[in-house]
Specification:
Number of strands: 12
Order of helices and strands: EEEHHHEEHEHHEEEHHHHEHEHE
Shape: globular
Helix content: 25-40%
Number of helices: 12
Radius of gyration: 20 Å
CATH topology of the largest domain: Nucleotidyltransferase, domain 5
Strand content: 15-25%
Distance between the termini: 28 Å
Number of domains: 2
CATH superfamily of the largest domain: ATPase, nucleotide binding domain
Length: 375
């Protein structure tokens, strides 16, 4: 019988609003039990600092230019993660074997083989007195992959846990959206990719216009009117990026400049329609390459709470696909990624692959992550 481990996963996503913490029990293969999930919100000042530095990093050269600022923020973000770990571990009566530390993505460019996550794994290990696995993407990049998405292997595990007929797809609507195909043969080749903007453009537009972090429930978009001419021009311009056959995206691959001159409401409505249109075409294209093209799509991530975005996506795809929140199957869609990195930490320790040729484009299945044992 394979040994199971208790692992704690940490995720600070594209929204940069806080830390998701999850504890799971797993053997890193087929066994899984969710133990605990908790969210720690960043202060307004820290959130602003993160967003400001991300806005400055537009190239790999900027990583050098702003290296001092990044060092300060990296230490601060590591301290905040350590506080979250220490607070959560007070609530349990068992030992955590591993901490899976994703860090805060500040720049990702697959073409340059650069993916920078803020987070000091050595310091975190010292502060929490646990084995920490971090820097999950570098080995995949070295093996010809694009460094993301890394969650598909966890999506596959979850599909075994929920009572649902296969095949399905898991659609993660985070800042960047990605999709994973789970076939009727659970042992078939794992296929996944990033498919475009999830929340990132809507969040950026609302933040620039109001200072708020996102369009809560999609309520601002509901009040606006879609500018068709601007929408169509933006979709035409997006084709050049789509044609590059990119498997992973960064929030910097997209911008909201095409919305200039629009009101808050009309801009939010237009960018929401743009996001849904891009995702529709990407999902249809993704599914067209699969043997079973008609399948149920389960949605996780913060974007599923944007009622306008979800309604629009459903309307575009409803003729061929059923779209449901993954929460309907007893899985908390807010914590899929933090649970995933807890799972990936175990796989990393066991030297099991976390990325695959048809998920990140790596040459062969690759493990990843650096293990730190400052305990």
């Amino acid at each position: 019988m394979s040994k199971s481990f208790y692992s704690l996963g940490l995720m600070s996503g594209t929204s940069m609003d806080g830390i998701d913490v999850s504890i799971i029990k797993s053997d890193g293969d087929i066994k899984f039990e969710g133990i605990l999930n908790k969210y720690f919100q960043y202060t307004e000042d820290f959130h602003r600092n993160l967003v400001n530095i991300r806005d400055k990093i537009n190239s790999s050269q900027d990583l050098k230019i702003y290296s001092k600022e990044l060092e300060v923020l990296e230490k601060e973000i590591t301290l905040l993660h350590s506080k979250a770990v220490n607070e959560v571990t007070k609530e349990i009566d068992f030992n955590i074997d591993f901490v899976g530390f994703h860090g805060q993505t500040i720049f990702h460019n697959a073409d340059e083989k650069i993916s920078k996550q803020l987070g000091d794994g050595n310091l975190l290990s010292q502060l929490v007195k646990k084995k920490v696995v971090y820097d999950f993407r570098q080995n995949d990049l070295r093996n010809g992959g694009q460094g993301a998405p890394l969650t598909p292997i966890f999506h596959k595990l979850i599909s075994k846990e929920i009572k649902i007929d296969l095949p399905i797809c898991v659609l993660n609507l985070g800042g960047i959206a990605n999709i994973t195909a789970i076939d009727s043969d659970i042992n078939s080749t794992l296929v996944s990719c990033d498919i475009g903007p999830g929340n990132c453009l809507i969040d950026e537009w609302v933040r620039k216009k109001t200072g708020k972090k996102f369009d809560k429930d999609g309520s601002i978009a509901m009040q606006g009117k879609i500018n068709i001419s601007i929408l169509n021009q933006a979709l035409d311009n997006y084709e050049s990026l789509r044609n590059k056959n990119i498997l992973s995206h960064d929030a910097k691959d997209f911008d909201v400049n095409f919305l200039r001159g629009l009101s808050l409401e009309d801009g939010t409505s237009t960018v929401t329609e743009f996001t849904a249109s891009v995702l529709e075409e990407s999902i249809v294209g993704f599914l067209s390459k699969l043997s079973d093209k008609s399948r149920k799509i389960l949605v996780c991530g913060g974007g599923r709470k944007n009622l306008t975005l979800m309604k629009t996506i459903k309307k575009k795809l409803e003729k061929k696909h059923t779209i449901e929140n993954i929460d309907s199957y007893g899985i908390d869609g807010d914590f899929m990624e933090s649970q995933a990195f807890a799972y990936l930490a175990i796989r990393s320790f066991l030297k099991l692959p976390i990325s695959f040729p048809k998920t990140t484009g790596c040459k062969e299945p690759s493990t990843g992550g650096i293990l730190v044992e400052n305990i």
